[in-house]
Design brief:
GO molecular function, one term: histone deacetylase activity
Helix content: 25-40%
Pathway: Ketone degradation; acetoin degradation
Keywords: Acetoin catabolism
Strand content: 5-15%
CATH class: Alpha Beta
Number of domains: 1
Number of helices: 11
Largest sheet: 8 strands, parallel
Pfam families: Hist_deacetyl
Order of helices and strands: EHEHHHEHEHEEHEHEHHH
CATH architecture: 3-Layer(aba) Sandwich
Protein name: Acetoin utilization protein AcuC
Structural class: alpha/beta
Length: 391
């Protein structure tokens, strides 16, 4: 199985300074994956990124917004179009850094669609909150949307986007809200308790694309077993009905139990189980065509490097055993980069991949109500029975 990893160290230049979205999480991910041999597996190709051109960015973003990003990249103090805020501070070189990430993700999607690679990953990407005309939620350009636009340009008629970041994938949903060729599925913490305040079950697509958006809004405190129950109760059914030609997954790791910006309770073991489920679905419904990006994740040492190393292992071959020790050299680097942060000794938190399959009415808790709300809102568009667990 060939896997393209679009990566070079210039992608670490997306650096907002003293900010939660610290590029050290990507540096530590790539170092861990390399030391564990994931990047040296047969069939793995590492390709440097090339920046997205203005024409590529304009498939999603307004030209006036791109011009403002460029102006802010020179050091000018700009406070419009979502820029210059605490969430989205400007920095010198911002346009170039953002365009490079976008180009990396676009290239990953292009390679998979054209058959140059069976799977591809852009681990620095996943900036899913950026809107066509403004920055939002730490995101300047929406690289998943630009990548999906490229696949559509190349002739795709059905692309599924599955977002497992703790925050709703609002920017991608907005871009494709009225496009029946793209199904956006997002599992996230409830918008009642977390940014961006969207992603309710009744958000199901625009008038030209009813049923093109599926939202699973999970209650705070959802753990591995409950998250996986919700995933398997909703995602396989809609993907099987939609039959995408390519699966794009945004794999933000901020569902982690110790993430400082959110309130779900997953372990890296639960996240690993999600990646395995996504791989199986890509093989089943999309002929194996799978593109993955990173996303959020603010437990910079404790979670993100392990989670995304598991992701790349699943994409490139055999999943890593959770008992695998983290290399001493990696632990030393992590301790130098983030003094005082807890440094994991193994690739596991002692969590698991088990879950209780959803049966209506048998687990009448908040997660069960979430599942039912999503299925009632979305399933009829696919000709599926919201109450039948076989769908």
């Amino acid at each position: 199985m060939s896997t393209l990893v679009v990566w070079d160290e210039r992608l670490l230049r997306y650096d907002m300074g003293d900010h939660p979205l610290d590029p050290v999480r990507v540096e530590l991910t790539m170092d861990l994956a390399r030391r564990l041999g994931v990047l040296d597996r047969p069939g793995v190709t590492i390709e440097p990124a090339e920046p997205a051109t203005d024409a590529m960015l304009e498939t999603v973003h307004d030209p006036d917004y791109i011009a403002v990003v460029k102006a802010a990249s020179t050091g000018r103090r700009i406070g419009i179009m979502g820029l210059g805020t605490t969430d989205n501070p400007t920095f010198v070189g911002m346009h170039d850094a953002s365009a490079l990430i976008t180009g990396a993700t676009r290239r990953a999607a292009e390679a998979v669609w054209t058959g140059a690679s069976a799977r591809a990953v852009s681990i620095s990407g996943g900036l899913h909150h950026a809107m066509p005309d403004r920055a939002s939620g730490f995101c300047v350009y929406n690289d998943p949307a630009v990548a999906i636009k490229r696949v559509l340009e190349l002739g795709a008629q059905r692309v599924a986007y599955v977002d497992i970041d703790v925050h709703h994938g609002d920017g991608v949903q907005e871009v494709f809200w009225d496009d029946p060729r793209v199904l956006t599925v997002s599992l996230h913490e409830s918008p009642r308790t977390l940014f961006p305040g969207t992603g309710f079950p009744d958000e199901t697509g625009g008038p030209g694309a009813p049923g093109s958006a599926v939202n699973v809004a999970l209650p705070p405190g959802t753990d591995d077993r409950a998250w996986l129950r919700a995933f398997h109760a909703v995602v396989p059914g809609v993907l099987r009905a939609f039959q995408p030609q390519l699966l794009f997954t945004q794999c933000g790791a901020d569902t982690y139990r110790h993430d400082p910006l959110a309130n779900l309770q997953l372990t890296v073991d639960g996240q690993r189980a999600a990646y395995l489920a996504l791989r199986d679905l890509a093989d089943e419904v999309a002929g194996g065509k799978w593109v993955a990006s990173g996303g959020g994740g603010y437990a910079l040492v404790e979670c993100v490097p392990r989670a995304w190393t598991h992701l790349m292992a699943v994409m490139t071959g055999e999943a890593l055993d959770g008992a695998t020790p983290t290399p001493a050299e990696w632990r030393d680097l992590a301790a130098r980069r983030r003094p005082g942060a807890p440094v994991p000794q193994t690739m596991s938190d002692g969590g698991g991949a088990g879950y209780d399959a959803w049966v209506p009415g048998e687990s009448p808790d908040a997660v069960d109500r979430t599942i039912m709300a999503t299925r009632r809102a979305a399933y009829p568009f696919f000709g599926l029975d919201p109450h039948d667990p076989r769908d």
